[in-house]
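Entry 14. Structure prediction run on the chain below.
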Amino acid sequence: MKAWLIAIGVCLLIGLGIYTLTRPDPVDVTLVPVERGTVEKTVANTRAGTIEACKRSRLSLPIGGQIGELLVAEGDYVSKGQLLVTLWNRDRRASVAEATAAVNSAVKERDSLCITARSDQREARRLESLSKQKLVSEELADLAESKAESSVARCEAAKAREEQAKAGREVAVAILEQTELRAPFDGIVAEVTGKIGEYATPSPPGVPTPPVIDLITDDCHYISAPLDEVDAAAIEVGMPVRVTLDAFRDRPFSARVTRIAPYVLDLEKQARTVEVEAEFIALSDETRMLAGYSADMEIILDKHENTLRIPSELLIDNEFVLVVGESDVLEKRSVVTGITNWKYSEIKSGLKQGEQIVSNIGSSGVIAGAPANIKSVDHDAASSGD
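Output returned:
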């Protein structure tokens, strides 16, 4: 009997030794606590968006010709209606001067003929009165009446010629204005193409040519970015937007959706997208925004505050997390999630506030069933970004 006990003891010692030698080493894990915070459901642009000026016009002259005057330079601020560029137009200016002289001549002619008409009318009335008194013959009174009517007709014809002359002057001025390029709004000259003496050519249909003046506003900007067509149905005008720009790192800007394109853009070899525009909210005067900056937008579809959340990267297959269970062994824990984004996921059930989950799930050996050695607890990871 004693020999059997000794044999059993030896077997137990051998088994314990084998278990000790073959047991895997515990893996180091870091933990983060489940905490409360804000979780947003967002959609983002598929490609980089662009900061656009509220007003931008690439201006060209309606006719071709030699540049006679270039009155602005790049960077100049201009007012609405200000003259920017003129083509050589001495012949057209001469036509305006000729038309103006014709108007002046027509005015003088009208004055002369209408004065004569009024005089003839007075004379006709005087002779008619004398005719009734039998002091002059009726024939003489009739002749005076006919002369007065003829004078009135010549006066009216002179007025018509005056209007004709004025219309001719308007035509001459319109033809002259075809050689002048004026600012359609207050703005800044972004680019000037062409120099004095060079020939400016208008853009014919289907043949793009560089504009003579590129005019933009520098005090009003908006964001335009493409979003995937699958997200378009959830977006509405007025939704809040968070905008980030490479030019202003770590500084998000608030905006709101102002326009959703009424069609899907289908470009060859690219995903179908919908263009969305948003306007800035309370942009400070110190922020010097430039048209052309690249920008990204996150449209906030929903927002839950003071809710249980965990970093989204710690979810496994969108339904599990790793926790340290009994005997310091890693276990899978099933969870139910609410709204999510790339940073945080809302936890509806499966975890409680203060519970700790494994944060280094991508490390070698960190899998369910592995023995764990708790290396540290990161209390900042769950609340970073608030």
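Confidence is low (pLDDT under 50) at residues 16-22.
Filed with the rest of this week's runs.
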